[in-house]
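Fill in residues.
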């Protein structure tokens, strides 16, 4: 308990009740992980910097605006490419706004609840049958095979 005393003062507890959201931080992490997955090591290349720059630019300004700005600086954006990114940006914004609607959230919640109930029923049925996993099962089987 002595080790925690410095962290559980009234001042420290007030600091933990900040009004900020971690949602934007999580969004940028997800965008970066899509273009530069953690399972691949990009640390020794310039590719990581480029991938992160694109992810941050798209997240900050939107796909169409970011691509337009980059390609205008490079003088290489065609009308068809621009319209493609405009449609892609529109779809992303539409989906985001659609997912925020109350009836969509309720349907998503109901589907999650139904799925949880189904899994719970299945696990109870498995438990009655005795087909659930128990710790030490593999050790027991290996020990019997050796005999």
């Amino acid at each position: 308990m002595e080790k925690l005393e410095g962290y559980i003062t009234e001042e420290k507890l007030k600091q933990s009740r900040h009004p900020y959201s971690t949602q934007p931080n999580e969004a940028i992490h997800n965008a970066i992980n899509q273009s530069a997955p953690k399972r691949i090591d990009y640390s020794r290349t310039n590719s990581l910097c480029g991938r992160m720059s694109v992810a941050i630019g798209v997240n900050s300004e939107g796909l169409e605006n970011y691509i337009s700005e980059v390609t205008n600086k490079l003088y290489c954006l065609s009308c068809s490419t621009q319209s493609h990114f405009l449609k892609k940006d529109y779809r992303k914004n539409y989906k985001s706004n659609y997912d925020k609607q109350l009836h969509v959230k309720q349907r998503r919640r109901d589907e999650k609840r139904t799925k949880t109930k189904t899994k719970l029923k299945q696990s109870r049925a498995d438990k009655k049958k005795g087909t659930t996993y128990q710790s030490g099962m593999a050790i027991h089987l290996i020990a019997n095979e050796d005999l």
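The two ends are 50 Å apart (CA to CA).
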